[in-house]
Design a protein that fits this description.
Blueprint (H helix, E strand, L loop, with lengths): L1 H21 L4 H27 L4 H22 L2
Helix pairs in contact: 1-3, 2-3
């Protein structure tokens, strides 16, 4: 998918930077962050599957874009801590 390649590199860089930040946070906070990332990853998987069944859906494309955007935003916030 186009969004995978658009977001993939940025997510990889941000995830690496965020891991360093996570090492400095309280374990309860880390658990919340990891749980939220897992939820976002699940939304991305579900959106991809839905798009595979209905590739022309602008709604599903927007949902996938929002899920990726949410992941990038969360990882960016972590790197700024």
């Amino acid at each position: 998918l186009v969004l995978d390649s658009l977001y993939g590199r940025e997510i990889a860089v941000l995830r690496e930077a965020a891991e360093g930040t996570l090492g400095q946070l309280d374990s309860a906070t880390v658990a919340v962050v990891r749980r939220n990332l897992a939820i976002i990853d699940q939304a991305i998987r579900e959106s991809r599957a839905a798009l595979a069944a209905d590739p022309g859906s602008p709604f599903l494309q927007e949902q996938l874009d929002r899920a990726y955007g949410g992941k990038v935003a969360l990882l960016r916030r972590l790197t700024l801590l």
